[in-house]
Design a protein that fits this description.
Layout lengths: L3 E6 L2 H19 L5 E3 L3 E3 L2 E8 L1 H9 L11 H14 L6 E6 L1
Antiparallel strand pairs: 1-4, 1-5, 2-4, 3-4
Length: about 100
């Protein structure tokens, strides 16, 4: 299973370099190459939306390494969404994150 998350922002041009840098940093921390795919953006009602799909390898490392400790949620998918949201927010990214598929 490859978790898929949708991010939305009003400042795409400023935030996408930060998102790419943060995801690259997460791949480095997890020692996983090509751990995520960032989709092409689309606009709707003044917001820009884009998806991030995590690889099974990156997901496995995040889930088993204890990185999600303290992430709130009853289910693993909700915990992963909250972990990823907090990880991005701690790097100055203000995009909203929603789980699409897990």
């Amino acid at each position: 299973m490859q978790p898929l998350f949708q991010l939305s922002t009003r400042k795409y041009k400023e935030e996408i370099p930060l998102v790419k840098k943060a995801m690259s940093e997460l791949e480095g921390i997890c020692n996983v190459k090509d751990g995520c795919i960032i989709s092409e953006p689309f606009n709707r009602a003044g917001w820009t939306f884009f998806n991030i799909q995590l690889s099974p390898d990156l997901t496995s490392v995040i889930e088993t390494s204890g990185m999600m400790e303290g992430a709130l949620g009853y289910r693993i998918a909700e915990q992963l969404k909250n972990f990823l949201g907090h990880f991005l927010e701690s790097r100055g990214i203000q995009a909203r994150i929603e789980k699409i598929d897990y």
